[in-house]
Specification:
Length: about 260
């Protein structure tokens, strides 16, 4: 028990820059208290002491502001950061290393008893503040749920879900977008969050601009190839754009920076 407690404290020290000492975490972090109390409640629930398990769960809710059903399954290294108003349903499962922020609901949409009604989070999932993950589906390892997102369908491993209803952003696409934004001299992630409407609109514009630039470059390259044939040397303008480029200053003016 003490080994696991030390592991829980260490994971908070590793993930929260505001945590200064183990004593501070042990005495002042409600996320840690909720996890420890849930283990007691879960043990009672598994040993058919269901009323006692619910009582410990209710006491934990009153003490920490975090409501975890005693039947829910928590892995190792789960960190409820701030976490006031978090609700974890009966059939929810939270994998090792997950981080859950305040106002999150891992809820259900079905009313059938005994059914898998609540989500399963894989390993190292991050669920942003105010997000609602509703249903008996799986959120893959390493996935991220943006703040205030409403997720009602599975999220692939490594992907990001943002918005209401949530839109899935594949990890590879996000990396390519950041590379494109870096070349333009502007990054939507630099000043806004993933679920901010302006940020989402800017990401769409970046994707669209990158696609158009790439297609134009390919067209000019094809025209240039045709121009090398006899009798067609005059069909390629001398200033044709044969490679991709971006007008960073112009884009900066357009976004009002």
């Amino acid at each position: 028990m003490f080994t696991r407690l030390r592991s829980d404290i260490q994971c908070i020290l590793d993930r929260d820059p505001a945590a200064r000492t183990a004593w501070e975490v042990l005495t002042l972090y409600p996320g840690l208290h909720a996890v420890v109390l849930h283990r007691w409640a879960h043990w009672l629930w598994q040993h058919r002491l269901k009323w006692c398990g619910r009582f410990v769960s209710q006491f934990s809710r009153w003490m920490t502001g975090i409501e975890i059903h005693p039947a829910a399954v928590l892995g190792r290294g789960v960190f409820f950061d701030h976490a006031m108003g978090v609700v974890v349903g009966e059939t929810a499962e939270i994998g090792d290393g997950c981080t859950i922020y305040q106002g999150v609901t891992l809820g259900g949409t079905a009313l059938y008893k005994g059914a898998k009604r609540h989500p399963t989070l894989g390993r190292n999932v991050v669920v942003g503040a105010g997000a609602k993950v509703l249903g008996g589906f799986t959120v893959g390892d390493g996935a991220k749920i943006g703040s205030n997102a409403v997720v009602t369908k599975p999220v692939p491993a490594g992907a990001t879900a943002v918005g209401n209803p949530a839109r899935i952003i594949e990890a590879d696409a996000a990396v390519r977008r950041e590379e494109t934004a870096s070349r333009m001299g502007f990054s939507a992630y630099g000043v806004t969050q993933n679920d901010d409407p302006l940020s989402m609109a800017m990401r769409g514009l970046i994707d669209n601009a990158a696609g158009q630039e790439h297609q134009i470059a390919l067209l000019w390259q094809a025209i240039e190839t045709l121009g090398k044939h006899p009798g067609r040397a005059d069909c390629v303008p001398g200033d044709a754009a044969r490679s991709e480029c971006f007008e960073a200053e112009r884009l900066t003016q357009l976004v009002g920076k």
